[in-house]
Amino acid sequence: MSLILDCFSVKRSTFYRWKAEGQKPKKRDAIEDKIEQLCMENQFIYGYRTITRLLKKIYGLIVNSKKVYRIMKEKGWLCRTRPKKMPSLGKPYYVTENRLNRDFQAENPMEKLVTDITYLYFGNCKLYLSSIMDLYNREIVAYTISDCQDTDFVLDTLHQLKLSQGVLLHSDQGSVYTSKGL
């Protein structure tokens, strides 16, 4: 034994201290017991912040939330979150280059038109306004209001106009403007 300790340049007292630390059973913290109990009672739906508040409310324990987080993470008691579902809008069917190129001046009426959709909030209700503006005199030449934002909504606005050949219609190329139906 002393030969091995000499080879690694370790003192005998250090070796026996390491050996004694490895054999000590870790005492379980009383806070861990209370955290486990709260987690099990609530089917692991609460996060560490709520568990910290419950420790204070129920048991009168003031514990740092970072300690509660560390304990819950080590034991695998963190709440199980569901991933947020995001709508998949798909890929644009057709995207064109920017022909307007920030030239917002028009020489003739109905030469350059711009369009966009605006959200209108009325209490709990949300409406959509699709409008087309003529850049010659900044006049709104067509508009539609609807409660759903889809391709038919934009097409209703476009069908209000008789567009001649060579008219430039500029949009922000959002999902309704780049869909196959348009």
Automatic annotation (TrEMBL):
Gene3D superfamilies: Ribonuclease H-like superfamily/Ribonuclease H (3.30.420.10). Pfam families: HTH_21, rve. InterPro entries: HTH-like_dom, Integrase_cat-core, RNaseH-like_sf, RNaseH_sf, Transpos_IS3, Transposase_IS3/IS150/IS904. Residues 105-182 form the Integrase catalytic domain. Involved in the transposition of the insertion sequence. This is Transposase InsO family protein. It comes from Streptococcus loxodontisalivarius.
